[in-house]
C-alpha cells in the first residue's frame, strides 16, 4: 500500500486526469487515473472520502502534486459532476486545468427526472446531440432538447442546463471528433473499477479501513501493467496544445 501511495509521479507528463469514486462496504474511495501524452494510463492514487468532500479531496490532489505530478502544461480533468470534486480541482489546480463533465452521468441525471417509459426517447436525443462534431452543432442540438424538455419536465430541463458547458469542453477545444470516445465520460476509470471489483468481490466482509486500502492498492498495482493506451492517443498532443491556448499558458503579457 505504501509503495503505491507514495511512489514518485514526476516522470509522468499527464494531459488528462480521471477522478471518480468506488464504494467499499459503507465507504467510498476516490481514485485518480492519469493519461500521459503518449496515451499511457497511470494510476495516481486514492483517498477514502465521498465525492462531495472538498477539503479531503483538495488535500488528496495536493499530495499528488507533492509527489511530483505536473500540471503546469495544462490538464483536462474528467469528473462525474460531484460538486466537491469540481471545487477541489478548481482550488488546487486553478488556472492549469479545464473540467470535462462526464456526458454519461449528465444524461442519466436528466433521465432520472422522467418516467422510465420515456427514457429511451430522451436518451437517444441526448446521445445524438452530444455526438455532433463541433461545439456549435452540439450546443445548438442540446439547447433544442432543453427547449423541448422545458415544456415536458422543467426539472429535467434544469438538470440538463446545470454545468452544460463543462460537458462540452472537448467540443470547445476542437478535439471531440478525435478524443471524444475516450475522454467524454469517466469510463476509462470505471473500467479499472470493474477490474478491481473482480478481485475485491472475493471479500465477504470488510474488517476495517486498512484492509480496504491494502486490497485496493494491491489490486491497482496488479491491474496497471495490463492497461491499454486510450483510443485516439495520437491526438493527445493536440489536446495539450488546445489546453495551453484556452488556459493562456506560455502567453507573454502585453506591456503597455
Describe this structure in words.
- With 256 residues, the protein is α/β, with parallel strands linked by helices.
- It has 2 domains: 164 residues, Nucleotidyltransferase, domain 5 (2-Layer Sandwich); 63 residues.
- It has 12 helices and 5 strands.
- A 5-stranded mixed sheet has the order 3-2-1-4-5, with helices on both faces.
- Strand 2 and strand 3 form a beta hairpin.
Please outline the helices and strands.
Elements: H1 2-6, E1 14-24, E2 27-36, E3 41-48, H2 54-66, E4 75-79, H3 83-93, E5 97-101, H4 103-111, H5 119-130, H6 135-152, H7 154-161, H8 169-173, H9 176-183, H10 187-200, H11 209-223, H12 236-247
Parallel strand pairs: 1-4, 4-5
Antiparallel strand pairs: 1-2, 2-3
Helix pairs in contact: 2-3, 4-5, 4-7, 5-6, 6-7, 10-11
What are the defining features of this structure?
256 residues, alpha/beta, Nucleotidyltransferase, domain 5, five-stranded mixed beta sheet, globular
Average the pLDDT over all residues and give the rounded result. Answer: 93
> Class by helix and strand content?
alpha/beta
Strand content: 15-25%
Which sequence of SSEs, written as H and E, runs from N to C?
A: HEEEHEHEHHHHHHHHH
Could you give me the name of the CATH homologous superfamily of the largest domain?
Ribonuclease H-like superfamily/Ribonuclease H
As for the number of domains, it is 2
- In CATH, the topology of the largest domain is named Nucleotidyltransferase, domain 5
Find the count of extended strands (DSSP E, 2+ residues): 5
Tell me roughly what share of residues is in helical segments: 40-55%
Largest sheet: 5 strands, mixed
Amino acid at each position: 500500500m505504501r509503495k503505491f501511495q507514495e511512489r514518485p509521479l514526476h516522470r509522468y507528463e499527464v494531459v488528462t486526469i480521471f477522478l471518480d469514486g468506488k464504494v467499499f462496504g459503507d465507504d467510498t474511495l476516490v481514485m485518480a487515473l492519469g493519461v500521459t501524452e503518449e496515451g499511457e494510463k497511470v494510476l495516481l492514487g486514492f483517498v477514502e472520502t465521498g465525492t462531495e468532500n472538498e477539503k479531503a479531496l483538495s488535500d488528496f490532489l495536493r499530495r499528488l502534486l507533492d509527489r511530483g505530478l505536473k500540471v503546469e502544461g495544462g490538464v483536462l480533468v474528467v469528473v462525474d459532476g460531484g460538486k466537491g470534486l469540481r471545487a477541489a480541482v478548481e482550488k488546487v489546480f486553478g488556472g492549469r486545468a479545464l473540467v470535462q463533465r462526464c456526458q454519461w452521468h449528465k444524461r442519466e441525471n436528466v433521465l432520472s427526472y422522467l418516467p422510465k417509459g420515456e427514457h429511451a426517447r430522451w436518451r437517444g436525443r441526448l446521445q445524438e446531440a452530444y455526438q455532433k462534431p463541433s461545439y456549435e452543432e452540439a450546443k445548438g442540438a442540446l439547447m433544442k432538447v432543453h427547449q423541448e424538455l422545458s415544456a415536458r419536465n422543467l426539472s429535467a430541463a434544469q438538470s440538463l442546463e446545470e454545468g452544460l458547458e463543462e460537458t462540452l469542453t472537448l467540443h470547445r477545444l476542437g478535439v471531440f471528433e478525435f478524443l471524444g470516445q475516450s475522454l467524454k465520460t469517466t469510463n476509462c476509470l470505471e473500467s479499472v473499477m470493474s477490474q478491481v471489483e473482480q478481485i475485491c468481490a472475493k471479500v465477504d466482509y470488510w474488517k476495517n479501513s486498512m484492509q480496504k486500502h491494502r486490497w485496493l492498492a494491491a489490486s491497482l498495482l496488479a491491474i496497471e501493467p495490463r492497461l491499454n493506451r486510450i483510443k485516439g492517443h495520437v491526438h493527445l498532443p493536440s489536446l495539450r496544445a488546445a489546453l495551453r491556448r484556452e488556459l493562456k499558458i506560455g502567453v507573454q503579457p502585453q506591456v503597455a
